[in-house]
Amino acid sequence: MSMEEYEIGLSYTIVKMEQQNTNSKEGVEVLQQVPFEDEKLGKGQFTSKIYHLQRALHLPALSQCMRTLGVHFQRAEQCPLFSKCSLTIDTVIRPDNGCSENVHNSTSEQLAAREIEIIDIASISRDYWSKVIVAPNVDLTTFKSQRTERGPLLKGWMDSCVPVMTTYKLVIMDAPIWGLGERLEDCIIAGERALFLACHRLCFAWIDEWYGMTMEQIREMERQTDMLLKKTLKKPVKAGSKHEGNRKTLKDEIVAVGRCT
């Protein structure tokens, strides 16, 4: 897809994944979404969210909703359990097939410590984190879009697809904890890799739902989703059919807003 399509598609994917991972006890609550303009970053949207978590196991599933949009941005998070730990993800998006070098303008010291990994959204991952993340399992090697006729993504697709774009992510995890830091760093980075794969895989798999939408439609979808998610979080629902019914209603309303005729 093109960079312009990616902005629409990823926004749609984030909204849909948020509603799929929100119920009466845990999920995403949006506090603020406002446009902004920065001299360095350009135009974008500032988003403030609270992630209500009942179980630590759900953290990876909800973290996938934190994908911030923009041609160049930086996100820094503090781990609530380990105040000394930090996670920084610096993202640059380019209209190429992954051939750009040092898009983050890293120093020679950073380049020496950096490990490069190519994440192919058509690849199949069976590691622990991929199993933990709550996301639909799709096979892009057999998927074909009805609206765009794009796909399936067969071997070598990155060198032949037009349009094509790449998201370059520089993930820096710092856990200065004696005896635990290195293992924690490896664990978090592996989790982020699985999140990148799941989110972007679904972005392409749902292309027939968001293709043709405008950014104005996406913003309206986000506003309506925010209201529905807040209602879902604050309304107590007992386990059973009522809970499932509420989730179905939420999903149907959001998808209806997202579809473009």
Automatic annotation (TrEMBL):
<dbReference type="GO" id="GO:0008526">
    <property type="term" value="F:phosphatidylinositol transfer activity"/>
</dbReference>
<dbReference type="InterPro" id="IPR055261">
    <property type="entry name" value="PI_transfer_N"/>
</dbReference>
<dbReference type="InterPro" id="IPR001666">
    <property type="entry name" value="PI_transfer"/>
</dbReference>
<dbReference type="GO" id="GO:0005634">
    <property type="term" value="C:nucleus"/>
</dbReference>
<dbReference type="GO" id="GO:0071944">
    <property type="term" value="C:cell periphery"/>
</dbReference>
<dbReference type="GO" id="GO:0005737">
    <property type="term" value="C:cytoplasm"/>
</dbReference>
<feature type="domain" description="Phosphatidylinositol transfer protein N-terminal">
    <location>
        <begin position="1"/>
        <end position="56"/>
    </location>
</feature>
<dbReference type="Pfam" id="PF02121">
    <property type="entry name" value="IP_trans"/>
</dbReference>
<protein>
    <recommendedName>
        <fullName>Phosphatidylinositol transfer protein N-terminal domain-containing protein</fullName>
    </recommendedName>
</protein>
<feature type="domain" description="Phosphatidylinositol transfer protein N-terminal">
    <location>
        <begin position="78"/>
        <end position="225"/>
    </location>
</feature>
<dbReference type="InterPro" id="IPR023393">
    <property type="entry name" value="START-like_dom_sf"/>
</dbReference>
